[in-house]
Amino acid sequence: MELHCYKRIGIRSLFLIALVLFTLTGLKTRFSLAEEYSGTFYVAVNGNDDNPGSAELPFASLERARDAIRSERLLGKTGVFCVQLAPGKYVRTEPFELSDADSHTRYIGVEGEIILSAGREISGWEVLTAEQKKDFPNADGEIWRAELPIVDGVPLFFEQMFVNEERAVRSRFPNEGFLRPDSVWEEFSMDASTRRSDKKSMPQEIRAKQGDLDELHLEEIPAAELRFSQFVIHHHWDTTRRILLGYDKASNTLKAQGSPMKSWNPWRNTSMYYLENLRSSFDVPGEWFYAGAEGCVYYRPKPGEKLEAASFIVPISGVNRMVIVAGTPTSSLEESKSTKDIRFEKIKFAHTDAPRRDYMMKTSELDVSITGDLTKPGPSQFEPAQSAAFTTAVITVDNSERVVLQDCEIAHIGEYGLWFQNCRDCAAINTNFIDLGAGAVRIGGGALDLRNKIENCVMTQGGRFFASATGVWIGQNTEEIAILHNDINDFYYTGVSVGWVWGYQGGHAFRNRIEFNKIWKIGQGQMSDMGGVYTLGTSTGTRVCNNVIFDVSSYAYGGWGLYPDEGSEGILFENNLVYDTTDGSFHQHYGKDNIVRNNILARSNINPANAGKEPHQLAITRVEEHLSCTFESNIIYWKEGVALGYNADNAKAIYSKNLWFNAGGEATFSGKSHDEWVKETGKDSDGMVADPLFVDPDANDFRLKPGSPAEKIGFVPFDYSQAGVVE
What we know:
globular; mainly beta; 14-stranded parallel sheet; single chain
């Protein structure tokens, strides 16, 4: 299968070569070498469900193969069954569903590319004439147009399009970066007795800064066209998507309506926003514009793209899940799951939707002239949610055990890639998650998830539709989850999030392991209040160890490397290399009994929004009566700013045997030298200020030279090259 190739070579390559050699003796022999099957059925794009499902006369659908296996089991056959998929694209218009009756089954792709696609082709493209291009800005380049097919009596609606297997940009303003509001406003109707609003929705506005929107000529856009346009506003850890209801030129005001803003994270004049799907912003190659009022879609080709060779795929409306594995809920957490032992190998899953949610649209109370019939696809509004928590996944596995994805790829999707819930001993191994509308993996949130594992996976290009999504989300009621040896990069919010209870409320995320991952290019100045690894609530026995985390940046505050947030408790942070972050390599909002030991924390910088302030390297926000954390045997290295931020000096924390060094000047601790700080506070009395003697820190080589003083503080060197996918 021709999946995206990353770093996995070496032993695994030799194994794959051996498998290829074995295929020369026939498909049946190829798979029987690894495992003996009680029966094998075959599926091909050109098959027929009236066939017997043999290699010579294959089925056409997964459902037919699944049902054939169920029939065999009813006849008394036991053991493991296999379904082999021949190369080709299998179009999915609804999820493939498996249940208790489908245990002990393998779905395996054979040689070539096997794609399960929830997309449909847009065809009939033509090049606009010079006369036809007059309605568009920047009319020098080519513009292509296709008519929208009619589905259920209305033009096909979509908010994502993939051109030549790459996500295309829906016309955007500005083309790069964001705008900042001059002010924001929300009408608030309050009941005087309860001091609460009696309304589901509120009129809301963004007042733009003078001149920011002039070139768009929004006041000239007909309402029938404007209803397909939106603005998206980023406010700290959330995003809100609103249909653009109107524009008042006199006051530079964008008008919208939706659920009331959250009091703990409303829109602000420091928030950032952009607009989508405007004809007047359809101005650069690689962009597309949905002209719903015309029944057309337009695209500006990139250099080298040819109309006759281009492919255009959009999600089939409403299909945001492709595989549903749903076991029967058990009466106790200890009871074995009835759905078990299902594997997917060497299959690509692609082109899923991010449909609007009926409940969100109804609470927005928008007129049907704006939304269209809510029983059909149409323009979306999405309310804010940390980690895009309301979304689902392409593959959802519930109440099951030993369900495994291996050597698969999930790409070009609208929401998350994979979700294990109420599961045990499930895994994704050597699987790529690429171009994700939300995040890659979700685990937990149900009664109990136990010993699920994500190992040696690549997760990249996330948050493309829901920027607040995380690379990996581990929720409430999870134990012994292992996130090992993964590459997690190019997300706009957090890399790995663990726990889902705010404060000391009995959170349950125990003994989880976040180890040997490489996490980088997180935040990218688009969100705030996030971390490379982010934790919440009681997490007794959880280990965040041997990770490499770098290039974490926020737009306002909080682009931290390691971030134990509200109520994080009982976590070990050890042997991590963290560098090039904003607002601190380590920040604990508030928590209890966390240990930060034997880490290298380097070069945290100031956020541009806080220009003029001094950057700090580690921070604790809340001062509490109990022990917040123990900070010992770490190396802290920086070039500008100070050692401690927020209340790190005042919090009840143990500092011991740390090595501090400011390569740009004197190391200061709350305005004092280390000796003065120790004398005044008694903290870190066995620590020191000295050059750790890194090999070449400017080139990110943080190995220690012989004679490093790190040995004197008990620092144990660790091989950080082992983080990330294994060769």
